[in-house]
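Researcher: Please translate sequence to C-alpha cells.
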Amino acid sequence: MNELILHHYPQSPFAEKARLMLGLKALSWHSVLIPPIMPKPDLTALTGGYRRTPVLQVGADIYCDTALIARRLEREKAVPALFPEGQEAIAAALSQYGDQVLFQHSVALNFQPNALEARFAELPEQVMQSFVADRKALFSGGTASRLESDLALAQWPVLMSQLETQLQRNGEFLLGDEPSIADLSWYHPLWFVAANAAISILLEDYPAVRAWMARIHDFGSGASARMEAEEAIRIAREATPEELPERGFVSTRGLSLDAQVTVCPVDYGCDPVAGRLVHEEMDEIVIAREDERAGLVHVHFPRIGYRVELA
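Model: Translation complete:
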C-alpha cells in the first residue's frame, strides 16, 4: 500500500486543517515541507502547476484541495468519520462556509499592517514584501475578492458570537457530540488568527470558542516522519496510479475521455493544470500528466470550485 505524503508548510491554515484530519483519524504520514510562496518547483513537478497548500500524495496519485483530501482520507480510514452518516450535506455545507467566509475574514485580519508586522517581526522586510506580493498574485484573476480589513473587524464579533452561542447550547462540536469536517474547517481560520499576537485578542471574549479550539487542537496531527521532496518525486515516478473506478463517466461539459483539458480553481490560485482527462464523476475530476521528474501521475480535483475545459 502506498503511504500518505502531505506537501505543506507549518503556517498554512489549510495545511493545519489537513494535519488535523490526519490526527483525528490517527493516521501515519510523511511530511514534505514546501515554500510558502512561489516558485515551488518540486510541488509543481507533481501537480503540473497547482500551487495551493496543502497537497496529498499517495504514490502517483496527487490530491488537490482539502475538500477532496478529506474524501480521500475517508477512504483510507472510515472511522471516525469526517462526514457523519445522515449529516453528510450539512457537514459539507458548514465546511464550505468555514473554508470561504471565515477564512476570508481571517486573511483580512492578518493582512492589517500591525498584524503583518507582528507575523514577520523577526524576519527581513523583504520577506514580508515578497509574501504580500505573492498573495496579491494568488488572489488575482479569480472570483474571490479580498475582504477589507475594517469590514472584517466589524463582522468578526457577529461570527464569533454566533459560534459561541452554538457551542454553549449544542454539545462539544458543531454537529453535536462528535467532531466532523465542519469543525476542522471552522477551526483553521481561527487558528490563523490565534497564531498572530497582534490580533489573537479578537478571540478572548469567547470562552466556549476557546474551549472548542482546545478540543480540536488535542486531535494532534497523527504520526508524521519528515521526507525530502526528491524522495516524494521518486516515489511518484516509480509508482503506478491507482486503478480508476469503473463507474460511468459523467461530464458536465460534454467532454470525452482522453481529451486534452485544463483544470483550475475558479476563486483564487487560478493556475491551470493541463493533462489528459481520464476520469470524471459527480464529485471528482482526474487528469493524467507526464512530468520529466515525476513520471506519469494522476492529479485529482474536486468538482465544486473547479473548472475543466478543453485545452
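Researcher: Any highlights?
Model: The two ends are 34 Å apart (CA to CA).
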